[in-house]
């Protein structure tokens, strides 16, 4: 049977950029506010936006009738192609694809639903009015975009990050931004760019970086910034799992790297920055003892894991990458920790962190304990 006989195809051109439409279709805060035919709304929504993840919700009709929906993502290629299997939890109804193509006037959206047979497709068309419903669905998207032209911090407001490329906590947030290709403006706090310092201090008088600015909102603390990005500017890479218990494991490992790796490493750096040899030696010895304990624990904890909290790259790995990078420069991870060394090497090979490391390379002379000739 030809594909077209068991396929339903709908198209509509919208006068909006592709990135905006992608966001409206994939960010839970948006998509669940317009999805579905006229008079329908989504309730009890859970959206795990990653390949293999599920989006479940009850579609509630104008008469209050509830229709369980369950879609499982098969392909996510921002901002142009989304493929998912759609069903009701009991069975799969069709495979859907959404393709976004740039046109002179905006974006052409092509929705395809591929059914097992022509009879299955015809049943949905005749019994449920799928073609009319699909047209209403695209018209609702159009209306939603017109009403929310900027899509709250979408195209209108631009994220800005204050920090320094060589700073470990700045890198932690940069990794999160790079993982999801989140657009932002970097405001470097350095001697060559003095224009940013006053504004950063005004926004965060505790004088710590990084600091994220989203419109009127200032966010300090690297972990909080990454949590915020996950909620308000999510992308294909989920840095905190949807499952609350799994998220707790991620947060614990994030705390571990900040408190037991980054903190002693910064202590040794602080000692060296005093310029006093005795203080430098004392701080280094203290840090070495703390780091040795952390390395030994990590060696056992990371055995058999791809990433810090399991199979998926997460917030914990954003924290791990710069902390282990600089900790190893401070107190080398010895050959008796092969699992930890391999994990550090995996982090260095991750494109988001590799990019942060490259961008910071020119500042290595600033490392007060002396940067080694590697990495
Ligand atoms: N807990 C903070 C730590 C931030 C932090 O220590 N940043 C360092 C740069 S890596 C800093 O601001 N140092 C300047 C100072 O302490 O004066 C976070 O997670 O963002």
The helix content, as a percent range, equals: 40-55%
Provide the CATH topology of the largest domain: Alpha-D-Glucose-1,6-Bisphosphate, Chain A, domain 4
Strand tally, please? 11
Poorly predicted regions: 152-156
Please report which band the strand proportion falls in: under 5%, 5-15%, 15-25%, 25-35%, 35-45% or over 45%: 15-25%
Strand arrangement across the biggest beta sheet: 1-7-6-5-4-3-2
What is the radius of gyration? Answer: 25 Å
> What's the CATH C level of the largest domain?
Alpha Beta
Q: Architecture of the largest domain, according to CATH?
A: 2-Layer Sandwich
List the helices and strands in order: EHHEEEEEEHHEHEHEEHHHHHH
Give a description of the structure.
This protein has 375 residues and is an alpha+beta fold. It has helices at residues 18-26, 28-34, 118-128, 130-147, 168-179, 197-203, 222-232, 244-273, 277-301, 315-330, 338-349, 351-360; strands spanning 7-14, 41-47, 54-60, 66-77, 81-87, 92-103, 106-114, 159-163, 185-188, 211-214, 217-220. Helix 1 packs across helix 2 (28-34), helix 5 packs parallel to helix 7 and helix 8 packs parallel to helix 10 (315-330). The model is unreliable at 152-156 (pLDDT under 50). The chain contains twelve helices and eleven strands. Glutathione (GSH) is lined by residues 167-169, 207-209, 221-223.
């Amino acid at each position: 049977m030809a594909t077209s006989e068991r396929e339903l195809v709908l198209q509509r051109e919208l006068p909006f950029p592709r990135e905006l439409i992608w966001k409206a279709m994939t960010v839970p805060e948006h998509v669940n506010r317009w999805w579905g035919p006229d008079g329908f709304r989504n309730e009890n929504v859970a959206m795990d936006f990653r390949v293999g993840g599920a989006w479940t919700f009850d579609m509630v009709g104008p008469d209050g009738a509830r229709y369980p929906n369950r879609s499982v993502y098969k392909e996510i290629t921002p901002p142009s192609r989304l493929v998912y299997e759609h069903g009701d939890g009991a069975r799969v109804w069709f495979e859907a694809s959404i393709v976004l193509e740039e046109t002179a006037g905006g974006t052409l959206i092509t929705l395809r639903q591929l059914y097992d047979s022509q009879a299955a497709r015809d049943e949905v068309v005749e019994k449920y009015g799928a073609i009319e419903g699909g047209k209403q669905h695209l018209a609702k998207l159009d209306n939603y975009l017109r009403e929310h032209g900027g899509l709250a911090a979408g195209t209108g407001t631009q994220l800005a990050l204050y920090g320094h490329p060589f700073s470990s906590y700045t890198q932690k947030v940069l990794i999160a931004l790079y993982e999801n290709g989140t657009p932002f403006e970097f405001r470097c706090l350095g001697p060559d760019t003095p224009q940013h310092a006053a504004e950063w201090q005004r926004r965060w008088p505790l004088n710590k970086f990084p600091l994220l600015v989203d419109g009127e909102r200032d966010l300090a603390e690297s972990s909080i910034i990454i949590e915020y990005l996950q909620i308000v500017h999510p992308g294909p890479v989920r840095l905190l799992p949807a499952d609350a218990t799994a998220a707790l494991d991620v947060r614990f490992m994030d705390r571990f790297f900040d408190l037991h790796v980054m903190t002693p490493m910064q202590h040794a750096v602080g000692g060296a920055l005093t310029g006093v040899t005795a203080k430098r030696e004392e701080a280094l010895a203290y840090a070495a003892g703390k780091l040795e304990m952390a390395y030994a624990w990590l060696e056992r904890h990371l055995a058999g894991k791809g990433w810090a909290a399991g199979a998926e790259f997460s917030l914990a790995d954003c924290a791990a990458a710069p902390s282990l990078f600089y900790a190893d420069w401070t107190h080398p991870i010895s050959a008796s920790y092969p699992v930890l060394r391999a994990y550090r090497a995996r982090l260095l090979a991750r494109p988001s962190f590799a990019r942060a490391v490259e961008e910071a390379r020119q500042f290595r002379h600033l490392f007060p304990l002396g940067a080694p000739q590697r990495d």
